[in-house]
Amino acid sequence: MPKREGTTIAGKRDPKTRVKPTLDEIAERANTSRSTVSRAFSRPDLLNPKTVAQILAIAEEIGYRPNNMARALSTGRTGNIGLLVPDIANPFFPPLIKAIQSQADALGLCLFLGSSGESGARENTLFERLAGQTDGIILASTRLSEAQVKIHAARHPITLINRDMAGLPRVLIDTQAAVMEAVGFLAENGHRHIAYLSGPKESWSNQQRMEAATEACRRTDMRLSIIPLSEPSFEGGEAAAEEAVAAGVTAILAFDDLTAQGAHARLSALGIDVPRDISLIGCDDALPAMTYPALSTLSGLSQEAGRHALKLLCDAIEHRDGSQDMKVVLGARFILRDTAGPAPAGDAKDRDRS
């Protein structure tokens, strides 16, 4: 019996063939209908998981890849999702991106990534470009205004990370309790004047941390100097550290680990020892393994946030009525390492030069 072009007599596909695998071939091998096979790729939630697993295994074996353009025409879905972050170079985001990418791969989704460079205008442009090519978009630490987010959400499924807007699916990393714990540690160790290196004004996380630091200092009768960063970067941390030293503080709480690292570098260049002369605490737990001494910080939870965000986005894509107020809150904690300790000996007031 002559063998059909592109397969062996045993039904195994010749890897050198140019004939593309088809849904009909999968259906024949799985002893099911073509529509069931198609549904396994477009709406697997409607099928028995064992059936989906069998179809996907056969597809993998024969090298079948679904045609996303055809699927988009028949189902209205592209199989693509978007993710926008403010700064891909910030060490908080790579673990988050990796977690979303891994979960998207498992779900058969393609991830489109954009970095806005801390610009709300650029983020808005990226959103407009991605909206037509994706089924939904995750906005991580968005720099868009609340009005802009609502406009986009009315036209396209979105999920927010670290922006609390009622009525929209969102994942929040709550650092307020951790900030208050960190400030409490400093108060107990003799510090009376600390600085908070403040991040972008559009950042929900920054607003939460600044409010918590202000309240914690009020409760402990400590003075708080809020020093705005020129930019949330290593260089921004360097410049802000000089202002903190000029203010006479004995401890610094930085917006994130990247700015804390910049502050540490400048303090070292000035001959100021951390933590003997000034204690230093970051946020996000993104760099401690790369620093010496090990950086005290607040736990970041970026990977957990990414996984929850993709789950919420998929739910939002499935349910477009807007009636679900889906919210996941992850609680951060203070992690004491080697850069925070007792205040320098002597009256802290003597150090206050302001």
CATH topology (level 3) name of the largest domain: Rossmann fold
Number of domains: 3
The whole-angstrom Rg is 26 Å
**Name given to the CATH homologous superfamily of the largest domain:** Response regulator
Structural class call reads alpha/beta
Q: Kindly report how far apart the N and C termini lie.
A: 94 Å
SS elements, strand count: 12
CATH hierarchy: architecture of the largest domain = 3-Layer(aba) Sandwich
How many helices in DSSP terms? 12
Biggest sheet descriptor: 6 strands, parallel
Which of globular, elongated, flat, extended, rod-shaped describes the shape?
Answer: elongated
Task: Describe what this molecule looks like in 3D.
With 354 residues, this protein is α/β, with parallel strands linked by helices. It has three domains: 1-77, lambda repressor-like DNA-binding domains (434 Repressor (Amino-terminal Domain)); 80-173 and 302-331, Response regulator (Rossmann fold, 3-Layer(aba) Sandwich); 175-300 and 335-351, Rossmann fold. 42% of the residues lie in helices and 15% in strands. The protein is built from twelve helices and twelve strands. The strands form three sheets. Strands 2-1-3-4-5-11 form a six-stranded parallel beta sheet, sandwiched between helices. A four-stranded parallel beta sheet has the order 7-6-8-9, with helices on both faces. The protein has a two-stranded antiparallel sheet with strand order 10-12. Strand 6, helix 9 and strand 7 (223-228) form a beta-alpha-beta unit. Residues 1-13 and 347-354 have low confidence and may be disordered.
